[in-house]
Amino acid sequence: MRICLTAVCLDFVQGVGADSQGVMSKRTARMMEEGSSSRHNISGGSQRSSPESTRSLRSEDLSVVNENGRAYPNDTFFMPCDSQEQTRLSILHRVFLNALGGQLTTAPLPSTIERILDVGSGSGDWAVAIALEYPGAEVVAVDLAVWDVEAAEEDAKQRLDEQGMHDVELPEVTWEIADLDMWGPVEHVEVTVEEGIEDEHVAKSVTGLNTQEGGKGRANSVQSNRSSRRESWRRSYNPPSRRGSVNLGWNFSEPFDFIHIRGMKGAFAYWTGVYRECYANLVPGGWLEVVDFQYHIAQPDSVMREVFINFHAVASKSGYPVTTTHLQREFFEAAGFEEYEMIAIDIPLGAWPGDDENHTLGKMHLVSLVESIEATALRSMTKHAGFTKEEVQERCGDVVQELLTGVHDQLETSFRFVRARKPLNDDK
Ligand SMILES: *[C@@H]1O[C@H](CO)[C@@H](O)[C@H](O)[C@H]1NC(C)=O
Ligand SMILES: *[C@@H]1O[C@H](CO)[C@@H](O)[C@H](O)[C@H]1NC(C)=O
Ligand SMILES: *[C@@H]1O[C@H](CO)[C@@H](O)[C@H](O)[C@H]1NC(C)=O
Ligand SMILES: *[C@@H]1O[C@H](CO)[C@@H](O)[C@H](O)[C@H]1NC(C)=O
Ligand SMILES: *[C@@H]1O[C@H](CO)[C@@H](O)[C@H](O)[C@H]1NC(C)=O
């Protein structure tokens, strides 16, 4: 598959699961034919997962909300769940993989691991990959929306074929549809620009790719270095509060050895509750990994910066801030976790790096960002900020133009991988 934007082309060795129809097309059609005995056991049929946390597969469960030309899993969730989004998530999965040099996680998992939970599994690429890596483990992948997870499976199969492994059975993943956000929005929290986009922290010098200071001018007035950027991740611990109280749980019938939450900023608002629930659903000694990223937008009067600031303000207003404050140590420790460790990796955004490896990675990352700008902003900006679809699209188009014409010099994204462990002696 070849994806081309005005200035960037990217070849994928394998397809990333796009088809031009709705993402549900093939899979839904088959499940409808077969009823809930689909080979994916997406409903709560499996003894080992949680009957109550899943809904049975009825046609109304599969309906999506169509709005402004995109499909959404429900009336409020800010991200779409169509084939375009599936493609983006698959590309982003490659970026995450690349960031870790091909590893799926930073958690030191024993090979004997038995149960793995992927919260917000999206396109399903990670869940399929981890199931392949730990064939003895049961992998439960939960998402709010129905995705064409068969595309992820076919992709994995093709990859194996290319490596000469033709007869490998893909392990079953238990795909569940459930809304794991039992807490709803939080009280309005002020989000500073730094928390939202870290724009003041260019830190060219951290990349090791181009340590030349001076010259180009643009971002030079911004004083920054790696440690100041680090600081911006360490806000004071000030968890937002919730309206009302929730005593319900996720209802998984058996605990997990590993819970994985990637790219879920903005999907949950009350992270204190999320981590508490993760803790309750882990075996003693079990690992939690939470992964997210932030862009650094240096260019002071760029459209990109303006759009991001607007978007972050609107997201906070909606009660679901799209920040990464939930990666802070204090959140994990408050829930009882130990052995907190954050691994920080800067990934180039755009085709600017000189070496082939980073060049390809930067391009891939750019494609996923370009794909995500409108997807991320459209619903929030039209629903909560009174913009029209056309206005949002125009602004987003301008951002894409900026990205492709090199207005933003040497952009990077900070990827953060946090792992933490439930104490071995806690068998609650
Ligand atoms: C799906 O769930 C049913 C009911 O629990 C079970 O009998 C069946 O073996 C499961 N199928 C797969 C492929 O796991
Ligand atoms: C867990 O079960 C309770 C009680 O049946 C239910 O209200 C709640 O929504 C369930 N949680 C999830 C995540 O489905
Ligand atoms: C839609 O899903 C999100 C994400 O889980 C949830 O927070 C929200 O309450 C849901 N909205 C509705 C109307 O069900
Ligand atoms: C890619 O960039 C990273 C960090 O910016 C650097 O450590 C690495 O050496 C680069 N890769 C190559 C092949 O130059
Ligand atoms: C890096 O930033 C920190 C915090 O702003 C500052 O204290 C430090 O002096 C800076 N270091 C360099 C080498 O500029």
Automatic annotation (TrEMBL):
Q: Which GO terms describe its molecular function?
A: methyltransferase activity
Q: Gene3D superfamilies this protein is in?
A: Vaccinia Virus protein VP39 (3.40.50.150)
Q: Where is the composition biased (Polar residues)?
A: 38-54
Keywords linked to the UniProt accession:
Methyltransferase, Signal, Transferase
Which biological process annotations from GO are given for this protein? methylation
Pfam families, per the entry: Methyltransf_23
Keyword Repeat listed? The answer is: no
Region described as Disordered: spans on this chain: 33-61, 204-240
| InterPro entries, sorted | SAM-dependent_MTases_sf
Q: Where is the signal peptide?
A: 1-18
Q: What is this protein called?
A: S-adenosyl-L-methionine-dependent methyltransferase
